Amino acid sequence: SRPWSLLTSRFSLLRLLSNVVPACPLLSIKPKRGLVDEKLEIVVRYLRPKHDVTLHSVHQSEDKDFWEAFGHYVSDDNGTVTVAKDASLSGTYVGVEAMGLMWSLRPVPGSRAGLRLRKKDVLLPLVFHISVHDGHVSQGFTQLTPLVSLVIERWYMAPGVQRFDIQEGDVRGTLFIPPGPGPFPGVLDMWGGGGGLVEYRAALLASHGFASMALEYLSPSNLKKVQVNVNYFETAYQILQNHAMVQRDRLALLGLSFGSSVTFFMAAYSKIIQPQCCVCVSGCHIPVIKSSVEETFDDLNNKIRIENNQLIWRDVILPIPTDPTLKVDVGQITCPVLLVVGGDDQNWPTLESAEDIQQIMEKAGNRHLLQVLIYPSAGHLIEPPYSPHHRATNFIVQEGKNKVVLLWGGQAKPHADAQEDSWEKILAFLQQHLYHATPQAKL
After folding, report:
1. Which ranges in 71-183 belong to alpha helices (H)?
2. Tell me, what's the pLDDT at 130?
3. In this model, does residue 9 exceed pLDDT 80?
4. Which residues form the Acyl-CoA thioester hydrolase/bile acid-CoA amino acid N-acetyltransferase domain (predicted)?
5. Is 51 an active-site residue?
6. CB contact at 8 A, 98 and 40
7. What is the pTM of this model?
8. CB 189 within 8 A of CB 212
């Protein structure tokens, strides 16, 4: 009987200790593998009650630069930290921010200046190492051993999305087709004056059910290769429209910055491009398209101003011209338009342009087609949600010229809010006018 009583006593002691000494911390993240616009559920359990901890996120970009974000937390009475409910007391973000470990990413100390985090190969995920550290730590994370850590993947392409290179005549781009039988509504996706082929937004749109074509129309490596002209965009539109997996009468234009200027121009004047709707992010209705890319950027460079070694382009077309021949006649647009504007845009006069666009469309009688989203303290680069904010980054205007630093504007927290809210509204807008509305011929 004695061995049995001794064993019973040991079990009682173990039960007692289990109520006093917590188990090893447990980090739970859902989903571990998901789309970049999916919210994360991050919970840390089995900490000591009222325990100071740091949650840290680190990502190595395709350019081999490291980006990090971190928040300082105190566990509750049960030894738990729930990121979506508990406030970060300090770090790269403060307050209750479910996605703070994503949108507040910044280059680690000692990194190259002027970096911008952008996905190049959408066939591969963004990989993040999320870790929990003892105490409130703000530096030297590589020298520390975390209490617990996990690796997660964030994708722009959902499972089943197909990617196709487009090379027809002079037109270059990438088409993303959603999973399923199709055909699908189509989106012609145009980025800004940085040039090159930018695929990640088009890939994400395809993940939400839109056949999306990322269009290359400015090539910084060879500016003479692609001219900015009406025929190029009309041909690209027809390529998308004629694809077997695309509904030819349910197409949209989506432009950012320079791409928005193209969108306004084509929607107003083209007889070939007849979109069901348009989305213009950080755009302007003052044509900056000259006979060639070189002439366009030479004209801009002659009008920019420099403050703190940062180039500011927002004044190059201010004040907004009163001469109607110097502006796109947006009064001729006959499809719904969603205009997304950052109130602290330092790259383009989008706020002033939005006001003038509204006045023109009011006089023309088509103001009802325009929806304007204005986000105070947001900057120019309004991207898909949870992308880090870039107030100023390196920018190459022409081949052979030195890098410049462009001021985009915006503050991190309101900019992050703008990206999350505008993306939700952009998807809803496209759903409404491409999936649910009855197609109408352009007047």
Report:
1. 100-103
2. 98
3. no
4. 37-168
5. no
6. yes
7. 0.89
8. yes
Choice among 37, 86, 344, 345 that is catalytic: 345
Catalytic residue among 380, 390, 415, 433: 380
The answer, yes or no, to whether residue 193 has pLDDT greater than 50, is yes
291 is catalytic: no
Nearest to 68 by CA among 182, 144, 10, 123: 144
Distance from C-alpha of 147 to C-alpha of 376, rounded to nearest angstrom: 39
To the query of whether residue 345 is one of the catalytic residues in this protein, the response is yes
Q: How far apart are CA 246 and CA 273, in angstroms?
A: 15
- How far is residue 404 CA from its own chain's centroid? 22
Amino acid at 344: D
Dump pLDDT digits (tens) for 323-375.
999 999 999 999 999 999 999 999 999 999 999 999 999 999 999 999 999 99
Give the C-alpha separation, 233 to 246, whole Å. Answer: 17
- Residue pair 144/209 in contact (Cβ under 8 Å)? The answer is no
CA distance linking residue 218 with residue 143, whole number of Å: 43
Walk me through the domains of the chain, giving residue ranges and CATH numbers: 9-155 (2.60.40.2240), 162-436 (3.40.50.1820)
- The stretch 138-153 carries a mean pLDDT of 96
